């Protein structure tokens, strides 16, 4: 099925099913957006790239960050939200797009459902002209987005090819924070990481809580731990839980690098923090024909008790 709005709403729209709802609207640059609602939360997902661009609980500040200068453009991932990096994470080779092609192409709606407390949207990506240009394998990639008391993202790779393949991937989550100077990150103490700001130097985090004061770009290794972002400015904790992932990326470009991005103001670094659920670096996933791999990232917000 194509992404015609009338067809999407007729086939997959849910109107106040047990207090939950799902609808499709035309977004910026005529790109379709799915709106998921429950009694207490709302999420929005662009069908281009299967990219979550909004998550908010009640009247609290948004939990997902999108740059104020970011513009939706056909064929290009938006700065912010949760880009799906697949089937490789990081720089491509020989003209391949950075972070893969999945975040830049249109996905199709595969299903929707709702119950008393949640609403779920499933998107899928199959081989297409863009994928065949860069990656010769047959596959089905799906992203299930479940909005309930948390926002849960399940990225499923089904390898349908005849030869083994290797993937790296990420749910490249941009979190909104009140002031990066008042944020602490727990869950990664005593964990080894590769520091991209120091030519991939391998190091170990000795601090119980990480506080950022400069550009940070780290790939934490051999970890399936929950990461908690304590935000003193917004008086909340953002919990990032995961499964099917043994690496975690912590990234903030800081002001100088942010100033070099055409879709981000230099001062916006202070309101964002990336905690990325990944299969990256040594955490590569090898798939034999017929095998699948599931990676899950879940975001939950709780009050910061003082």
Number of strands: 24
Strand content: 35-45%
Query: How many domains?
Result: 1
CATH architecture: Distorted Sandwich
Tell me about the largest β-sheet.
9 strands, antiparallel
Question: Structural class from helices and strands?
Answer: mainly beta
The main sheet orders its strands as 7-8-9-10-24-20-19-14-17
Query: What is the CATH level 1 assignment?
Result: Mainly Beta
- Kindly provide the radius of gyration, computed on alpha-carbon positions and rounded to a whole number of angstroms: 19 Å
Structure notes:
By secondary structure, the chain is mainly beta. The protein has a single domain (5-303), classed as Beta-galactosidase, Chain A, domain 5 (Distorted Sandwich), CATH 2.70.98.10. Helix content is 7%, strand content 44%. The chain is built from three helices and 24 strands. It has helices at residues 5-12, 129-134, 254-259, and strands at 14-17, 20-26, 32-37, 41-46, 51-57, 84-85, 108-114, 119-125, 139-147, 151-159, 165-167, 169-171, 174-176, 183-186, 192-195, 201-204, 209-210, 216-221, 227-231, 236-243, 247-252, 272-279, 285-287, 292-303. Strands 7-8-9-10-24-20-19-14-17 form a nine-stranded antiparallel β-sheet, with no helix packed on it. Strands 6, 12, 13, 15, 16, 18, 21 and 22 form an eight-stranded antiparallel β-sheet that branches. Strands 1-2-3-4-5 form a five-stranded antiparallel β-sheet. A hairpin with a 5-residue loop joins β2 and β3 (32-37). The chain is globular, with a radius of gyration of 19 Å.
